[in-house]
Design a protein that fits this description.
The protein is mostly helical. The protein has 21 helices and two strands. A hairpin with a 5-residue loop joins strand 1 and strand 2. Helix 6 runs parallel beside helix 12 and helix 14 packs across helix 15. It is globular. The termini are far apart.
């Protein structure tokens, strides 16, 4: 039953929504992800600024990468290649390309409609921009519940399954006891809240990412003379032009889109939750940062995994087996048996930070639904830890099917909300672009220009814009003919 429902939702509905609406957002925004691509690196550099007691833009980026860079980048890519052939990689790229624009708008809206809580911390996400942007509390509660179930429970079970079975394959560790150990370590971080989660992600995400990219790049360099032919194989297979993979075109599209969405999460409404916690000068700046996150996740890390598999010589057409084991064995075929150990350790770090991220998404939406109810939060933590243990011992097919179904339902609600709020997102983008065109290096959001929207004065105080105006002069806020228009 799960497989039948999953085949319809993620095999048909998800593809149309993700690719179709992503392409629409791209065209209507005049290809925002391409226009702002060079600018992304400057915004990324500026995101390193920190303020005492606040979550910086860089920490928000590390939090989002903590979730995006997980089992999907190793096991997910392996599964996509196994079931869809090399052509699946092309469809992952296409999904990420249009997903960059989707992520820009959902994260900009997450920042725009964020709220400042009693502790001075920001909270936001799809629930907030649906309630305050669309004035629809029922739909906001629905997407909060879907985020809670998808990330807090389903994705955590999947991440747990991936790491415990990887460690079992590499070291022979018992999955039950590994699941228990993972649950205990995560519990120690959960109790510290968002600031401890951000601090751990700030430390582990760059470490795990650079180490993984370094090893996979070694494999690519060693086999570099075969890279052009392999890239050609990817493109040819995507359209059925390679005889060896001609029968896999349909599977390549489905697996490429599904696993691409699972890896980069663009359009799922997850990234806006963490994008909203950052202290930034303009909502669009966090949109630019998060669009870069999608690019980095898919075009860099997922591509590294795909080329590792395809260049190793271990993968052959018609390969049948576990996507995670395929990645482990592919690296081992090039560097020796220590490759299996490395993949297991890398995956353990990927999964640990991903689960922290998933947990926060669930807690954020639990608080949206029920407020700061401490007994409920404690119960949620206990249930998450139980689901992590469940994922460690459950069948992979069941875990993937459950995660895919809830992910598709989540994407359906979030993308429809984004479509209805798209004009607001365009206003934010135009305000940002106008300030940059006026020569302002760091645009500042002036809430008085958006007085018709339901914004939180605690999150976007007028004094912020006034302070910049006083410090930098009238042109700091674009008070030119462009700025007053």
């Amino acid at each position: 039953m799960l497989e039948t429902l999953n085949a319809f939702l993620s095999g048909k509905v998800l593809i149309v929504l993700i690719v179709g609406l992503g392409a629409y957002f791209t065209i209507r925004s005049n290809f925002v992800q391409i226009r702002h691509f060079p600018h992304m690196f400057g915004v990324f550099r500026d995101s390193l600024r920190k303020s005492a007691g606040e979550i910086s833009s860089f920490q928000a980026l590390m939090l989002s990468l903590a979730g995006r860079v997980g089992a999907g980048n190793i096991a997910g890519v392996g599964l996509a290649v196994t079931l869809g052939g090399p052509g699946a990689v092309f469809w992952m790229w296409l999904t990420a390309l249009v997903g960059m624009s989707t992520s820009f708008f959902e994260c900009s809206l997450g920042q725009l409609y964020k709220r400042c809580d009693a502790n001075g911390q920001f909270r936001g996400g799809p629930s907030y921009y649906i309630q305050h942007g669309l004035k629809n509390r029922a739909l906001a509660m629905l997407i909060a519940a879907l985020l809670l179930v998808t990330f807090g429970f389903a994705f955590n079970g999947l991440q747990s399954h991936a790491v415990t079975h990887s460690l079992n394959n590499a070291f022979g560790f018992n999955t039950t006891w590994t699941g228990v150990a993972l649950s205990v370590l995560l519990a120690l971080v959960f109790i510290g809240g968002i600031k401890r989660i951000a601090a751990v992600s700030d430390l582990l995400v760059p470490l795990k990412t650079l180490a993984y990219i370094g090893v996979t790049l070694y494999v690519i360099v060693v086999q570099f003379e075969h890279v052009p032919d392999m890239l050609l194989t990817i493109f040819r297979s995507a359209f059925g032009l390679d005889q060896a993979f001609a029968g896999l075109v349909g599977s390549a599209i489905v697996m490429g889109v599904k696993r691409g969405v699972f890896a980069n999460e663009a359009g799922l409404g997850s990234a806006p939750n963490v994008a909203a916690v950052a202290k930034v000068d303009h909502p669009a700046s966090q949109g630019v940062v998060q669009a870069f996150s999608v690019f980095f996740d898919t075009f860099v890390i997922c591509t590294c995994t795909a080329l590792l598999i395809l260049l190793s010589g271990f993968y052959t057409p018609g390969f049948e087996g576990d996507g995670l084991v395929l990645t482990q064995d592919s690296l081992a075929a090039v560097v020796g048996d220590w490759g299996r150990t490395f993949i297991s350790v890398a995956l353990a770090l990927f999964v640990f930070t991903s689960i922290l991220y998933n947990y926060y998404l669930g807690e954020n939406n639990l608080r949206f639904l029920f407020g700061n109810n401490r007994p409920l939060v404690m119960g949620y933590r206990a249930l998450v830890l139980l689901l992590i243990f469940w994922g460690a011992i459950e069948d992979l097919g069941t875990v993937f099917a459950f995660a895919d179904i809830t992910m598709t339902l989540l994407a359906l609600v979030n993308l429809l909300a984004l479509a209805m709020l798209f004009k607001v997102g365009l206003r934010v983008l135009r305000d940002y672009d106008e300030q940059r065109q006026a020569g302002i290096k760091v645009p500042v959001f002036d809430p008085s220009r958006f007085a018709d929207l339901d914004l939180d004065p605690g999150a976007w105080p007028a004094t912020q814009a006034e302070a910049r105006k006083a410090a930098d002069g009238p042109e700091s806020l674009g008070e030119t003919a462009v700025g007053r228009s």
